[in-house]
Inverse folding.
């Protein structure tokens, strides 16, 4: 089974990075989250209810919908905030990429640790620009709003192809497919990583470090 | 072919499609109410949330949808459409978008109804939630109010897109294959808003683009949104009935259970018809209910766009009058020091317009540069005598050409102390401004530009006091800095 990979690209001002990333990540997670599973006897289960919430962006002419879960929002905001800080440290010609990866865990025998097999990866490439005056910023505000709208349509289009999704798990396997740590919703298992490319186009050693760490973890 | 589908599956599928259609209408109409929507997640299934999504049911909307469906289901050649249009306070209306729920012939026989179809319909509803915030009508609906309202109309049958004008765009929300056909949800929206631009419905965005409470955490529904009237439905002379009867059958409980058993076994899925666990008022949106019922009445309050602007101008004029009377005192302060009342009307205009720097009045305390041994003393506030030579304050005489300015300068009664001619003009008629509908537009801007309100922190005695304090403490600060000069040098080296 091949991992599905989608790339989205946005060009934003520095102050719009946070909201644009939140908008796209939350839109994806809205579609990849279900209610909490409640397993009953006879191998059946019922699903809790997912609420939604409209969020207005302050620096972009845009409103997006996210799952009503403060816990999930906190986790995503933390990741986006780290990405944003890394981007701003890298300099004014910031280019970076934040990846949202959905994976399944596959239990391995000892001494090998569980394998994480991604089944869908969303890469959001960000170019940060600096604008000279308020008029340009105002135009950028509207343009980025339109672009984000197009990206949301792209996301929806991919998701509605209804390609591979992990099978619904039994009670013992649910933690291999879903993130059951939140108390109100249940997204598929996911992880968020990011890379910053400096102006030379070479990616900083975050990825390399992560590869080494993963290899050593075996 | 229905023969492959068990009766239970067929029944389930029909029910899914029916409630999917009703929920679709709810999502679309609620997205055009002009308010931010917020519903809560619940980990324990309440049994009344179809497709495991918390979507409230506005009874009027459900009623309209059922009326349009008239017991039928969306099928091949029979689409359910929700048309969103805009109606101005003058009675003009324009279709903005049409959402279509269609069924085509392409069947997916192998798909499991109560599991896969149900989950995919749930995903499609989430996509609908996302896409309804992306089409252009969303922004318009958030700004609805006195100038225009957003209306919806539900119809069943052939899709009609002719009212959307030329060049309309289509966005597909998604598709779900079922054993009896493929459900498709799409939206066609107008791109040609030419009718709109001449009426200036779009209010200009804030210049800085920053909302004041950006850094304040708001919980669900706490931030006030733009005042908006919710969707009304045509015809506008619909009866203003009392509360709609609770539509009990739409609250059929959906206690779908899913099985993790292998597909070869019969999966135990059941839909129970139980009395609703949550009673009607909790499910519907009470505010929306009242608003929908009374929207017809509110809609009759008509304010033409031009009138609205004039109303704004009136406010601004009042504001200007109050600030300029405050300015007038400042000016009279300045005027005290002036030599003679100016005779040249253009010069009096200059006196009226020019000040020592923006927002700053000259302080009474004359701190001459010579008395302070300061660097940059040239930038300290000047004495009055220096002002006469300051080109910023006394511009060189412009060629005297007759202009409407002169007429208006002489024509106004004085609002303040006697010899002062340079104060507020009530009917300031600037050159080159159009006279017809908005005679005060340029004038208001001109006056505002010239009479910015005084900053409290820069009022006379406060500014001079703080200046004096700063100057007093300067020698001490300099002494300290000189003592620590080595540290500073080391710091600078470190940075390099």
């Amino acid at each position: 089974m091949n991992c599905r990979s989608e790339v989205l690209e946005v060009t934003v001002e520095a102050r719009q990075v946070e909201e644009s990333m939140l908008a796209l990540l939350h839109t994806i997670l809205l579609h990849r989250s279900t209610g909490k599973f409640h397993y009953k006897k006879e191998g059946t289960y019922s699903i809790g209810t997912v609420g939604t919430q409209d969020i207005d962006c302050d620096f972009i002419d845009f409103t997006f919908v996210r799952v009503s879960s403060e816990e999930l929002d906190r986790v995503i905001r933390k990741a986006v905030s780290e990405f944003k800080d890394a981007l701003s440290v890298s300099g004014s010609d910031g280019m970076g990429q934040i990846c949202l990866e959905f994976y399944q865990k596959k239990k391995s025998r000892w001494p090998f640790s569980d394998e994480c097999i991604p089944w869908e990866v969303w890469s959001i490439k960000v170019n940060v620009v600096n604008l000279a005056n308020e008029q340009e910023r105002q135009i950028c505000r509207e343009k980025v709003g339109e672009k984000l709208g197009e990206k949301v349509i792209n996301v929806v289009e991919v998701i509605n192809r209804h390609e591979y999704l992990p099978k619904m798990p039994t009670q013992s396997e649910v933690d291999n497919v879903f993130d059951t740590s939140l108390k109100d919703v249940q997204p598929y298992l996911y992880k968020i990583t990011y890379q910053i490319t400096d102006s030379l186009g070479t990616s900083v050693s975050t990825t390399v470090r992560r590869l080494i760490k993963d290899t050593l973890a075996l | 072919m229905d023969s492959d589908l068990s009766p239970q599956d067929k029944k389930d599928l029909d029910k899914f499609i029916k409630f999917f259609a009703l929920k679709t209408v709810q999502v679309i109409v609620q997205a055009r109410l002009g308010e931010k929507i917020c519903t809560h997640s619940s980990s324990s299934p309440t049994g009344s949330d179809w497709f495991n999504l918390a979507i409230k049911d506005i009874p009027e909307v459900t009623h309209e949808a059922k009326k349009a469906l008239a017991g039928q289901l969306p099928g091949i050649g029979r689409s359910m459409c929700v048309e969103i249009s805009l109606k101005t306070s003058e009675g003009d209306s324009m279709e903005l978008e049409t959402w279509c729920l269609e069924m085509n012939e392409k069947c997916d026989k192998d798909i499991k109804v109560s599991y896969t179809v149900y989950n995919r319909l749930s995903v499609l509803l989430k996509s609908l939630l996302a896409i309804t915030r992306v089409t252009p009508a969303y922004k318009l609906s958030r700004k609805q109010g006195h100038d225009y309202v957003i209306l919806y109309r539900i119809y069943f049958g052939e899709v009609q897109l002719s009212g959307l004008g030329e060049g309309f765009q289509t966005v597909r929300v998604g598709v779900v294959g079922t054993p009896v056909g493929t459900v498709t949800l799409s939206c066609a929206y107008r791109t040609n808003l030419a009718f709109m631009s001449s009426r200036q419905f779009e209010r200009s965005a804030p210049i800085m683009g920053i909302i004041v409470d950006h850094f304040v955490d708001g919980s669900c529904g706490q931030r006030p949104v733009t005042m908006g009237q919710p969707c009304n439905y045509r015809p506008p002379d619909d009866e203003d009935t009392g509360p709609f009867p609770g539509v009990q059958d739409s609250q059929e409980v959906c206690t779908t259970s899913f099985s993790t058993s292998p597909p070869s076994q019969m999966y135990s899925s059941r839909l129970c018809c139980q009395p609703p666990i949550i009673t009607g008022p909790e499910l519907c949106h009470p505010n929306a209910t009242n608003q929908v019922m009374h929207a017809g009445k509110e809609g009759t309050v008509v304010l033409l766009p031009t009138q609205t602007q004039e109303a704004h101008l009136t406010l601004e004029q009042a504001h200007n009058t109050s600030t300029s009377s405050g300015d007038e005192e400042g000016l009279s302060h300045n005027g005290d020091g002036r030599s003679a009342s100016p005779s040249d009307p253009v010069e009096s205009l200059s006196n009226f317009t020019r000040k020592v720097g923006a927002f700053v009045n000259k302080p009474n305390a004359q701190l001459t540069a010579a008395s302070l041994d300061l660097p940059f003393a040239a930038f300290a506030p000047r004495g009055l005598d220096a002002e006469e030579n300051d080109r910023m304050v006394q511009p060189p005489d412009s060629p005297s050409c007759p202009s409407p300015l002169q007429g208006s300068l002489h024509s106004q009664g004085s609002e303040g102390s006697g010899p002062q001619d340079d104060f507020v003009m009530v009917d300031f008629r600037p050159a080159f401004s159009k006279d017809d509908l908005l005679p005060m537009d340029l004038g208001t801007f001109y006056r505002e530009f010239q009479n910015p309100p005084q900053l409290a922190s820069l009022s006379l005695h406060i500014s001079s006091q703080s200046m004096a304090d700063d100057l007093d403490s300067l020698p001490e600060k300099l002494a300290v800095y000189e003592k620590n000069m080595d540290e500073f040098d080391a710091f600078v080296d470190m940075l390099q």
User: Anything to note?
Assistant: The mean pLDDT of chain B is 65. Chain B touches chain A through 55 residues (CB under 8 Å).
